[in-house]
Amino acid sequence: MNILPKYGLLQYRNAVRIYTKDILESLSLFKKETKEHKTTLLIIHEHGQLEELDSVINFLKSFGVLIYADWIDEDIARDKSDTTIQYLKNKVSSNEKIIFLATEEAIQSKWCNWVLRFIATQNRDVVILPIREDFSDYGGIDLLNKYPYINEISENKYQIRYPKDNTEELENWLESVTAIA
Q1: Could you say which DSSP state residue 24 is in?
Q2: How many angstroms separate the CA atoms of 145 and 163, rounded?
């Protein structure tokens, strides 16, 4: 199991650009992109990890897949109210793909874990993108035994590894359109 380290993820932050942008400007520009001819993708992430979020968007774009997300800077109440549940239902049902950015902070977050369980109740598949802290072991091994996850198999080559040990190239998974419930 080869889990992408945080420094490896952060290298993607400006890798697909000719020039650098600050995080908020980058996420704002990404949000304004049209969803025409793009895979819609929901990324579940720890609220304060914008640099990691920007990096993962650019990581996914490096596969040549056009990704659209309309949720980047929307504020969502971090509670389990009817409004929040309806918001999540709408986001889960309107996106073709769902990725959980499983940093150490996210896997410790009660909120992120609640959202992950909620998505499972909606009968939608979610893929884990595990990110370990630099020079340390990954604390979310139990997630990787339960959900499919993105695994680095060699430099710049990634696959989805499913709990039953079958695999799929990440690029193929990103390009395939999932039927939206």
Answers
A1: H
A2: 6
* β pairing state of 149-154 and 157-161: antiparallel
Please give the pLDDT value at position 181. 47
The domains of the chain are located at 4-175
pTM for this model (two decimals): 0.78
Compute, in degrees rounded to 10, the torsion defined by CA atoms 109, 48, 69, 133.
-70
The CATH architecture that domain 4-175 belongs to is 3-Layer(aba) Sandwich (3.40)
**What is the per-residue pLDDT for 18?**
46
What pLDDT, in 10s, does the model give residues 89-148?
Answer: 888 888 888 899 999 999 999 888 888 988 888 888 899 999 988 878 888 999 999 999
Q: Under a CB-based contact definition with an 8 Å cutoff, are residues 168 and 127 in contact?
A: no
Spatial distance between the Cα atoms of 159 and 40, rounded to a whole number of angstroms? 19
What value, to the nearest 5°, has the Cα angle with vertex 33 and ends 41 and 130?
Answer: 30
d(CA 180, CA 23): 30
CA pair distance 117, 60, nearest whole angstrom: 24
Per-residue pLDDT at 46:
86
